[in-house]
Structure formats: structure tokens, C-alpha cells
Design brief:
The chain has 1 helix and 47 strands. The strands form 11 sheets. Strands 1, 2, 4, 5, 7, 10 and 12 form a 7-stranded antiparallel beta sheet that branches. A 5-stranded antiparallel beta sheet has the order 3-6-11-8-9. Strands 13-39-38-37 form a 4-stranded antiparallel beta sheet, with no helix packed on it. The longest helix has 6 residues.
Amino acid sequence: MKTKITYSVIMLVVSLGLFLGFNVSDNPKNKVESPQSQTINPVHPVPFGTVVYVDSLNGANDTVSLKNRGYKVFNRCANGPGTAPVWNSGIATAPGPAFNGPATGYALSTFNMTTGTSNQDGWLVLPRLAGGINATDSLYFYARNNSAVNVDSIRVMYSTNDSVPEGTWIELGRFLCNATTWTRVGFKASSTSVNGRFAIRSNTVGGGPTGPNCFNVGIDMITIERVAAPPPLPTTWYEQVTGVTADLYTISAADINNVWAAGTTGKVVRTTNGGTWTNVSGNLPAGDIFYACWAFDANTCLVTSSPGATFTYKTTNGGTNWVQVFTQAGGFIDGFYFKDANNGLMLGDAVGGRSSNWKTTNGGTTWDSAGVNFASTEGFYNNSIAGVGDVVYIGGGNTKIFKTTNFGTTWAPTVAAPGEANIASVYFNDANNGLFGGNTLVQLTTNGGTTWTSVTPPGTAGQTVGIAGTAPSNYWAARTGTVYATTNAGTNWTTSYTAAGTFRHMVKARTGSPYLYACRSNGTVAKYGGLFTGVTPGSNGVVSNYALNQNYPNPFNPTTKITFAVPVSGLVNLKVYDMTGKEIATLVNGQLNNGNYSVDFNAASLSSGIYFYTIKSGNFTDTKKMMLIK
């Protein structure tokens, strides 16, 4: 799943503070903690989550009015209160008109909250929300001051159970107010609490009326915005039979249900429910080998082959018909990346002394190389492409990863990868954190590819042909017949899944994730996440004993149904073998609860003969024979 940046301005990372004490050494004039912040034009940006609280501050903002709206206001200046309240309605000229609404429609904190050269410390505790604060909630507001320099300080606090300054608070961050424009800042709650509250704290060293930092500060347009918690990581891999035995070189998951894969002998397969696969090769040349594909949805997909020249085909009707949309003599297209349904890049090996880069603005129907190529003799690796918005990476065969930050207008190699000549896979969790894998090495970047550092490689043999991940530090890497997992950005790897055949490519679904799909040399696909697709619960009632029943119909051509019973929750494995004992298919491999189940077996790609199916669960094992007659 790539991460697409849809907002016009990127919010910086929240900086956490762990102390509440206030002294001269804490003066943000000398030390700035970095909140999420952005300077924007005076229009409210697209929300970063669902708004669960909003106060435009367009009305009266004196102490009584604020309290009537559920706020709590406190003056904790060391030398006591001055001649003005801690917070009041805005002044049209100092620091200036409000961000939006009436010119005075904002909350103002002035230097007259205290006396002399004292430090300001005025609290505005936000109302308590019904249902409390979630760990995914963030407080956003606009701020500015009336100084020629950015000196006035605001700290943002969070408490799980208190509403007075003397309670237990965590400082989420602090910043200097901008003196020339309203700046939107955001701070994420540190934990979930039914009694959680945010507080905005006007807190400046020497901020009294005769102090060096005696200026006014305003805040406007307060929102609390909630982002849905990410889904939990899956726990089980599932084997899926595609109905073909072709070597599948490429796979693409538009979402958790709509997935396409392609490979040798002109084969393209598709699922629209995350597990039931059908052959959708249509009118594609039977002798072609497809090395890369890009799934848009259930109906639309691009595939590319290189049987001498390179060809790209597109379907818009689920694979019934394919139309050639591109060809290049002597070329080899390595893969695709689309930042939306229309705008995409197609990247390939250099031809005639220049890179073979192409751009489309109509979903791959037409392609143009103008303005996206560069002088090169580089060869690249199929499917070794990653993108985050306009930033795209492609792994090469000469210790280089090429990067564009403007969607292909200019390209430059990132820092060379010492010791690894072949960059066979690359993946980025976000704009900064990514991994690449090759024949022997895996390297990590935390700065968008500016520098790379070697980490422990997964396994000991074979190319790392697919990498996917979630969050900054969780990654999976496919190598030979095993998928490895790390939760600490490659410091340690564990075996996540092992299967027959050789993995060729692995992807994360672009939406609805974290779901992984990995294709192999024997025409099978392994899925990580969700439930079994094609395994159907049977009749109601509690099951007391294990059972494996005779398939029906039997003999069959080409499909048959196998039913079985599981008396206790646990791992269930159901596989099909030929007469020699060779594993043909894995029909079930995962956790099932007590119950009766059925699964369909499609033998369209197999020859007539006798086959065996075996179930294993707990200490129970059973095998039965079935006959395929074509």
C-alpha cells in the first residue's frame, strides 16, 4: 500500500516534552521545540481528520464568555496578575485582524497579564469532550504575535485527568509565534482518556509590560480532529490457488479485494474478492512473459511484456479484451507507478543512451516521454519502483537508486549503495523511511534516500524481490521461498511465512491495508491479512469431532467441493498432492474456529489423474483420494 499525500501542505512531526517547570533556561527564544506546523494563506485547509470539536472564536472571548463555553482560564504568572485578563477578545490592530470572521474574532493574550519584567504563564484549558480524547486526536489552531521578531511562546499541554495547572500535564510541544502571518499548528494527544483535555498556554520569558518580550499573542480557529485508528496487523498467511501454473512475476493490489497478477505463457489472473482467482488473459499473446502490472480496480489493469520489443496492454473490462497502448523496439519496461487514476509513470531500461521513462495523464491509454528522460545506459529491476506522491524511486543494476521529486521532470541518483550492485526491490513507508533489497544487502534510509545504511539482511540466499511495510519501522521482505518480517527497521528479522516455490514479487494493498499479496514461481499467491476467501462455514451447531469428508462430485472436472469439520479453534492446513507426493495446492492454511467448513478446488490447470487431499489440525491428520477426469 503506498501512502498518498493528499494535502497541500505537509504537517511536521509532533515534538514531545516531558516537563512542566518554567525557568529562564526554558525560554523558547533560545530553544525551540518543533510542533507540527505550517504557514498558509488565510483560508482554512482541508482537515487532517474528522473534526470532533470546533470553536471559531468569532464571538466574545473574555474570561466569562470563555468559561460559559466550557473553557477554564488560569493566571499562573509568578509575580501575580497584571491589569489585563489572561485571555480576552482580539484587537484588530495588535497583532492584527483575526484569521477569519470579525477582525476581533480571536482570543488574545497580552503582556499586561502580569507585571514588570515577569514571565507570562496564562492557561486556556479546553472544554472536556463527551467520550473523551482518543490517542488519534490532534489539537489544531492558528497563532501569531505583533512583534517584529518571533518571540512570543505558546506551549500545548495534555492531561488525562486534570483541568487545573497544578495537576499532571504532559507538554506536547512549544513554538514561537509568527510575527507576520497566522500559522496553523497541530499537536497530537499522547494517550486516550475519557477525561483527557488539551490546554493552550501563553508562556513567555520576560513577557511582562516592561520586559524584553512584551508583545501580544493571538490564537484563532480551534479544532480537535480525529483520525481513525489504523487497523491491527494481520496474524495469518493464506495460500491461494490461481488456476494457473505459470511463473507469476508481478502482482498489484489496488485494494484488499481487487488484485491482479501476471507472468509467463501470456497469463494474467485476477481476484475481485481477495481470494477467488480467475484467468483473465483474454486476447493477450500466449507466448509473452509479463514482468510488471498495475491494477486500478476490478476492471482496469496495465501489463507489460518484453518478448524482444516491449509491449504494454490495457484492459478496461476485467481482462476480457486487451488493447496494446505502447511498444518500444529494444526496450524493457520495468514497472509502473500512478499517483492517481490518471497520472502515472512507466519506467524501463535505457535505450539508445537515455532512460526509457514515459508519462501518462489519461490512465495509461497514451504515453509520452517528453521531459521525463535523462541520459543513461542504466538497466533497472522489474517492480523495483516505489512512490510517495510526486516522489518516485527506481532501483537499478549499478549500485544506484534514481529519485525524482517532481514526478519525473528531473531525476538524480541517490547515494550509491556500496557493496550491492543490484537493487531488486525498494519500498517507502512514508516520505522519509524506506528500505531497498538486493542480492546480498538490505539498506535503510530515514531521510528520503539522501543516505542509506546497511541493516541485517533477511535470510541468507537469493534476491530480496519484494518489500512492503507499515509505520516507520515495520517491513516484510520476500526472499526465495520465505517472507521475513521486522518491527525495528531491519535490526532483526523473523520468518513470517514459508511456502513451496520461489517468491517473485510482493506488494501491499494500496487501500484498506495492511494486506500483503505475494506471487510465486508455481502460479500460487500468498495473502497476509483478512479471512479465508473460498472457505465457507457450513451448517450451524457445535462440532464434537474432526472430520474430512469425501469430495463431491467425484470424479470431477474441473471443480469439486471438499467439506471438513473442526471441533476446536486452531491452525488448519488442507493441501492437495499428486500421485508422486508433490504438493499441488494449499487450500487452507490458517486459524479456524469450531465448525463445519467447505472449500472449492479448481483443477483446470491439472491433467487427468488421481490426486490426494490431506488435512492437518492439532493431532488430527486424514487423507482422501479424488479423481480428475477431463
